[in-house]
UniProtKB/TrEMBL annotation:
GO molecular function, one term: acyltransferase activity, transferring groups other than amino-acyl groups
Domain of life: Bacteria
Domain N-acetyltransferase: residue ranges: 4-154
Signal peptide: none
InterPro entries linked: Acyl_CoA_acyltransferase, GNAT_dom
Protein name (Swiss-Prot/TrEMBL): N-acetyltransferase domain-containing protein
A Pfam family: Acetyltransf_7
Length: 180
């Protein structure tokens, strides 16, 4: 398995990655293609294509928050799901650093959210039950009530407040300041 960074929206790889995004996440859970394209120039943001041999099997987007890494999206191509790719991808990216990790998961008790939470728990992530709301990616989308999961351990309320502020100021800066 190999990870390659996507630098330009004008490549076949970006188009293939976008297809995986579009078929893996509801519109409220992702940016538009245009928004995603613009992020490629952001120094905090990394879009990775994941290959098995010569086949694109998944993608992961990671933000460098200075003291933390934030996984915004992890997606595996539909025809390759339930084959261990997701955990292999996460183990590969997590092995590159000693920084702690943070990500968002749904709070509802539907089967997909339960599966996601259990998936990340198996990787060592902990659920933090602080009130967390993801801002909408644009005017047509909704606020999402989520949990933050952190690795390697849970966070205190004070750390949550600082981390939440950092996530909003870096990851969601484009959507929070879009109307200004």
């Amino acid at each position: 398995m190999k990870l390659t960074r996507v630098h330009s929206p004008r490549t076949k790889t970006f188009s293939k990655v976008w297809y995986i995004f579009r078929t893996s996440f509801w519109p409220d859970e992702r940016r538009t293609r245009r928004q995603e394209s613009k992020l490629l120039a952001n120094s905090h943001y990394r879009l990775w294509a994941v290959w098995d041999q010569k086949e694109l099997v998944g993608t992961v987007t990671i933000w460098d928050l200075k003291k933390w890494y934030f996984v915004e999206h992890l997606a595996v191509k539909r025809s390759r799901r339930d084959r261990g790719y997701g955990s292999k991808i996460m183990r590969r990216v997590m092995a590159r650093t000693n920084k702690p990790w943070v990500l968002e998961v749904g709070r509802s008790r539907d089967l997909n959210n339960k599966r996601r939470i259990e998936f990340y728990r198996r990787l060592g992530f902990k659920v933090n039950r602080h009130t967390y709301v993801q801002p909408p990616y644009d005017k047509t989308k909704k606020f999402l009530k989520l949990y933050l999961m952190t690795y390697p351990k849970k966070i205190t309320t004070g750390r949550y407040i600082r981390l939440n502020r950092r996530i909003k100021s870096i990851v969601y800066q484009d959507v929070l300041h879009a109307e200004k």
